[in-house]
Amino acid sequence: MNWDKLKEVVSWGQYLHWAQLNVDRWICPEDHTESESIAVAYQFFASMYVVIEGWKQLQIEDSKIDHVLSNNKEGVELLRRARNAVYHFQKEIHGEKMSGFANDLGRDDWIIRLYHEFVRFLGEYPRKVYPFDEWKEEFVGQFYDMLGWKPQFK
């Protein structure tokens, strides 16, 4: 087992956790004003780009995730622009960088599919990489303890 890769995946999983916190707030708005709903949505979009960026940098492979990414290259670029719009000051409210992605989002639910595939991957990861049956569940528990959360997937 590659311990350095394991640590990198744990680090990547932290960013996925942050995306998860944002998507939960986006999907369950609980009395958000329109402005708050927009802010929460863009926080999710920005955090998903960081997760994608980490995925690519770590050169992790998963056929389902790679399929969604390869079929949505324009959307990934729009996510990058949304991330930049969130974390770099824009002189106009809801400028072109933000509205470009928001307009595209309504066409397809690919970003939610991608999010769920990332969660699935992270949920399966520790069992796939641990080479022994003995102590596997203990290892899985320690992995999630290191991560600080346990991905819930179907």
UniProtKB/TrEMBL annotation:
It comes from the Bacteria. This is HEPN AbiU2-like domain-containing protein. It comes from Arsukibacterium tuosuense.
